[in-house]
Design goal:
The chain has about 240 residues and is of the alpha/beta class. Helices cover about 30% and strands about 25% of the residues.
């Protein structure tokens, strides 16, 4: 998996923290759309304190069950069923990093999602996004090939209209006080089930952005209360527990 080394190496590059054996010790990471914990668990094993959130209760139950098989994760990883918006209402400036992997292409209100990500991040905090570009090639590969030919994911998983180019994503990020530091193309090999870095971002890509120290936060709470779409269209979610790591 390219994502964990990408997150680890980037955080260590931008930080003076260094702990042999547990290089991410001292970092607090929010894993948005954590699913069954595929990213939360390895980040926790690297020493980070991780909060994994997902709007689907079933995903959280699966993640908690899987966590029981590794005692190392006790006290390192916590899972909660809630949305990023709900987390942002009670966790201002709490995290060193936010990870949103394969999430933003399912979001109904991307502007609100990014505003909430900025809200929970500390100044100079890092936002990591992996998503799908909005191109003809991405339609052919991520929808036609992946959903209907190879059947890697269920049909109907993706909506091409919600895919976003790195340039458009950067505009949203800049409006919430982020500076994009890196954009890297990613290529999936369906034969071996492996990912590799490439120079071409026309299908999948990974992005790293840093929150400005003086980023001005907008009033996302009032937007949410006025009935705007939830940050993900996968399900309605319950409120976050206030007892966070």
């Amino acid at each position: 998996d390219l994502r964990v080394p990408f997150i680890r190496d980037t955080l260590l590059t931008y930080s003076e923290k260094m702990h042999l054996g547990h290089p991410l010790q001292g970092f607090r990471i929010l894993d948005v759309g954590c699913g069954g914990g595929l990213l939360s668990e390895p980040l926790g094993r690297l020493g980070a304190v991780v909060v994994g959130i997902d709007p689907l209760e079933d995903n959280i139950r699966t993640a908690k069950l899987h966590q029981l098989f590794d005692p190392v994760l006790k006290g390192q990883v916590e899972y909660t069923a809630c949305s990023l918006e709900e987390m942002a209402m009670e966790a201002t400036n709490r995290f060193d990093a936010v990870v949103a992997s394969e999430v933003v292409e399912h979001v109904n209100n991307l502007e609100l999602f990014i505003t909430c990500a900025a809200q929970v991040l500390k100044p100079d905090g890092s936002l990591f996004i992996t998503t799908i570009n909005k191109t003809i090639l991405s339609y052919a590969m991520a929808i036609v090939a992946a959903e209907y030919v190879l059947r890697i994911v269920p049909s109907g998983t993706h909506e091409w209209e919600k895919f976003i180019s790195p340039e458009d994503l950067e505009k949203y990020l800049a409006s919430s006080g982020f500076t994009v530091e890196a954009v890297n193309g990613m290529l999936f090999n369906p034969i071996f089930g492996t990912w590799s870095w490439i120079n071409d971002c026309s299908v999948n890509y990974a992005l790293h952005a840093v929150k400005s120290k003086v980023a001005e936060q907008s009033d996302f709470v009032s937007d949410s209360s006025n009935g705007k779409d939830n940050d993900s269209d996968r399900s309605e979610s319950s409120s976050c527990s206030k007892d966070k790591l």
